[in-house]
Specification:
Layout (H helix, E strand, L loop, with lengths): L5 E3 L7 H11 L11 H18 L4 E3 L14 E3 H7 L4 H15 L6 E5 L5 H8 L3 E6 L2 H14 L5 E5 L2 H7 L4 E6 L5 H11 L3 E9 L6 H12 L5 E5 L2 E5 L7 E5 L16 H26 L13 E12 L2 E7 L4 H4 L3 H12 L5 H10 L2 E11 L2 E12 L20
Helix pairs in contact: 1-4, 2-5, 4-5, 8-9
């Protein structure tokens, strides 16, 4: 019988183990117990610099695919820039995995990880930067050679044990002893189930398997459903199209589906300056519609029995500015005081006041906190001031209803009176 997965944000998880895992995957910077020293920061900058170089590369690789094939490539000759863009793990995912590994490293005696599917080696470099003992398998010799060249350029080739061959053969030859296995290759139903079954005996006690692309195809969806039915895995969590599998002594059986809790910045990169005008019009129209609703209500009712003048969903707005001063990022979130008279959701208004008083250290941290409290980004634009570039964000929050803008209207006010 398939176990039912519970959808939740990381803040709503009660299990201490899963709460720690989820907050390091999805929480903002101030919610994680990870310290980034200068060496780590430099290593990550080099990895992301390599990612940008690979996105512009004109190299091609003759790929011998031992897995389930590709939806992007139709031939064996594949461009490195397209592999980088469409195949390898994103910066967000790789960085989240790094944070989890850094957190676990401080609480484990053994820190050995296996990556099944090396590709160009960028994710492998992130794993190595965590300080874990990294082993990675790749079915294609040319791809493995290209990855090794990348590691040599990054200076981390000595931290990575790279093996080439089919997963089946390497699995049979290996003694195991891993604490985490990242299964990121051969996305086939039967193959995935076979690998996971074999890994049961090769993981260290309390170890984890992270299965990639569990919604990539009908077969992979079926494979994940089968894994959920397996009583061996008493704790599981779905995260960004991937599935975590755990067999933990003393853990209450639970199966979670972790929701995203951040706003992607990539969709804002190509915003145009006309959004300034559009945002202003949106704000103006919202206020005018609200005022008109109040006026109509006063005409049709002899007594102002209720202060509510809008039905259905409405929005309240705020603003965020991001700029730099002396190399430090400054984030300012502000909400007009009128929101206290317009908004019907008192909890949201109280949270907004606290957000406005908080000093964020980065734009990403601010967006994480805002999105987790229901604030969404409507429009973004950048202006060039004398002191440098300033990013402007128009934020909105859905509310069930709005109260009149005019401050003299209240529930106890009679028609035609002020105050």
């Amino acid at each position: 019988m398939k176990r039912k997965e519970k959808k939740t944000y990381w803040r709503g998880i009660h299990s201490p183990f899963f709460f720690d895992l989820a907050r390091h995957l999805e929480g903002g910077g101030r919610y994680v117990d990870v310290v980034y020293d200068k060496g780590l920061v430099k290593a990550l900058e080099q990895i992301e610099g390599l990612r940008q170089n690979l996105r512009r590369s004109s190299d091609c690789i003759e790929v011998h695919d031992c897995g389930a094939g590709s939806r992007v490539f139709k031939s064996k000759s594949r461009e490195v820039r397209k592999i980088t863009r469409y195949v390898i793990q994103s910066k967000r995912v790789a960085f989240s995995l790094l944070r989890v590994l850094l957190f676990w490293r401080a609480h484990r005696r053994s820190v050995k990880i296996l990556e099944m599917g090396t590709s160009l080696g960028l994710t492998t470099a992130y794993l190595a930067a965590s300080g874990w003992e990294v082993e990675t398998w790749e079915g294609c010799q040319q791809t493995a050679n290209y990855a090794r060249k990348n590691w040599k350029g990054l200076g981390c080739e000595g931290q990575i044990n790279s093996k080439v061959g089919t997963f089946k053969r390497l699995m049979e030859e290996s003694q195991g002893g891993w604490d985490v296995v990242f299964l990121d290759g051969h996305h086939d139903r039967d193959a995935t189930l076979a690998y996971v079954e074999c890994l049961k005996t090769k993981l260290n006690p309390g170890g984890a398997i992270l299965v990639d692309d569990i919604v990539w195809s009908k077969g992979m969806k079926e494979a994940w459903s089968k894994l959920l039915e397996d009583s061996h895995w008493n704790a599981t969590m779905t995260w960004r199209g991937k599935g975590w599998l755990f067999n933990r002594d003393g853990e209450i059986e639970q199966h979670l589906k972790l929701r995203k809790s951040y706003i992607s910045l990539s969709k804002f990169n190509n915003m145009k300056l006309f959004t300034i005008v559009f945002a202003a019009i949106t704000l103006l129209m919202s206020t005018q519609v609200q005022a008109q609703g109040t006026k109509e209500q006063m005409k049709t009712k002899s007594n102002a029995e209720s202060s509510t003048s809008a039905s259905g969903a409405s929005k309240i707005f705020g603003e965020m500015l991001v700029f730099e001063i002396n190399g430090k990022t400054v984030v300012k979130v502000s909400f007009d005081p009128i929101l206290g008279r317009m908004g019907a959701d008192k909890d949201a208004l109280m949270a907004s006041q606290q957000i406005g008083d908080f000093k964020f250290t980065s734009m990403g941290q601010a967006l994480n906190v805002l999105s987790s409290h229901g604030w969404m980004v409507e429009h973004v634009w950048t202006t060039l001031e004398r002191s440098g570039a300033v990013q402007h964000f128009i934020l909105s929050h859905d509310v069930a209803k709005l109260t009149p803008v005019s401050p003299w209207l209240s529930k106890n006010t009679k028609k035609g009176t002020k105050g």
